Amino acid sequence: MRTLCSSTLIGEFFVIGFAGLVAMKDPDLSGALVWTVCGVAMLLTVVLCGMLSRPGGVQLGWVLQAVLIVSGFWVPLMFFLGACFAALWWASIHFGRKIDEAKARWAAEQSSAA
Q1: Sign of the dihedral through C-alpha 54, 42, 81, 34
Q2: pLDDT confidence of 5, banded at 50, 70, 90?
Q3: Distance between CA atoms of residues 88 and 7, nearest Å
Q4: CA–CA separation, 27 and 71 (whole Å)
Q5: What is the pLDDT of residues 19-42, one digit of tens each?
Q6: In terms of DSSP H, where are the helices of the chain?
Q7: Distance CA 101, CA 60 (A)
Q8: In the Cβ-directed half-sphere of 13, how many Cα atoms lie within 13 Å?
Q9: How far apart are CA 109 and CA 101, in angstroms?
Q10: What's the sign of the alpha-carbon dihedral 57, 63, 8, 22?
């Protein structure tokens, strides 16, 4: 699960950076504000990659997904991209757990056969 979720988070890292570039075109937003918010969000994606195996890591990932969707109020395309990444996050968790279970079963079979 960790590999799939980390891949999703790294993809979000780049999307957040590109969303920051788009948000810079909004005359109502200052560059310092945009890059502070985007920088914190980008840093959070990297930190979450290391926290996925710890308690609360997956839940913080869900919070990040919600924040990405809400960011659509400033960059409208983020409604769509945030929803896409939320779906990817769900799929990463769901299928990642299935892969982890299959690996554990295979390892148990190999150890019992030896």
Answers
A1: positive
A2: very high
A3: 10
A4: 16
A5: 999 999 999 999 999 999 999 999
A6: 2-23, 31-51, 57-70, 77-113
A7: 23
A8: 15
A9: 12
A10: negative
Phi, psi of 27 (to 5 degrees): -70, -15
Residue with tokens 């914190």, as numbered in its chain: 40
The pair of structure tokens assigned to 97 is 């757990």
Measured between alpha carbons, how far is 94 from 97 in angstroms, rounded to an integer?
A: 6
Please report which confidence band the pLDDT of residue 48 belongs to, taking 50, 70 and 90 as the band edges: very high
Using an 8 Å Cβ cutoff, are 64 and 12 in contact?
A: yes
Say whether 52 sits in a helix, a strand or coil. coil
> What pLDDT shows up at residue 90?
97
Yes or no: say if 80 and 68 are a contact pair by the CB < 8 Å rule: no
Cα 13 off chain centre by = 8
Burial class, 67, CB count within 10 angstroms (exposed 0-12 / middle 13-18 / buried 19+):
middle
